[in-house]
Amino acid sequence: MSGSRYTEHIAAALMAAGMIALGSHAQADDIKAPDRIKQAGKIVYCSDISGPPLGYFDENNQPIGSDIDLGKEIAKRFGVQAEFANTPFDGIIPALQAKHCDAILSQLFDKPARREVVDFVDYMYSSQALLVHKGNPKNIKSLDDLSGVKIAAENGTTIQSLVEDQNKKFEAAGKPPANLVVFPKDSDALQALQINQVDVYGTTLESAAYFMQKASDVFDIAGDPFAKILTGIATRKDDTELHDAIQKAFDAIKADGTDMEILKKWHLEGDTL
Predict the structure, then answer these.
(1) Distance between CA 20 and CA 13 in Å, rounded?
(2) What whole-number percentage of the chain has pLDDT above 90?
């Protein structure tokens, strides 16, 4: 990808902005959490805390990231604490259904099939990207170039499904499929690229931009970002009270500018709704 095109797509994610302290906002009188949340004094989110900059652990093993900040801000509007249950992404909806948490906050893409089983409060956009070694030695520009190429992805993610669909196209065209290697955590998939076990690492644009920011001398983003999609907080179908409360809290967070503060802090303002 040329420097200008790369900048066009993810400059917002990589801009050298300073850390912005989140403002202090009083709990709105009309934002009321369900009684069970108030009584527990907390809201529990299922989150796969392995994908920076949205959710990952710092050097003190504390969860940080834009999703983490948003979850804490919603909890503050409810007048309760936020708790994050670290959950593998491929099992995150079953964990919600089993009531291991109150909601999912983990860059979960709002897809029609998922709307059959959960409700969403959309809060940002996300896209997909292909991270490669510096210089892009395999000359990868899109999914069409993955025939015979070894690619890593986290289990249960959209990029995994996209590569699997691409392999069906390769099969129909009589071409070798991509060699898709699936890992339980996003960080494991990245490590596979770092140690040359794979040629490509498929992930979200947000994570790819973060890794580029940290190691631009090691990685490149191959081609253009693709598959832009809404991303949401998920709640159980039978939990409309919590869904409506989260929607009202997010609307207030967006209206008073706190949402943009969070996105700017993590260089993600280009993903705003």
Answers:
(1) 15
(2) 85
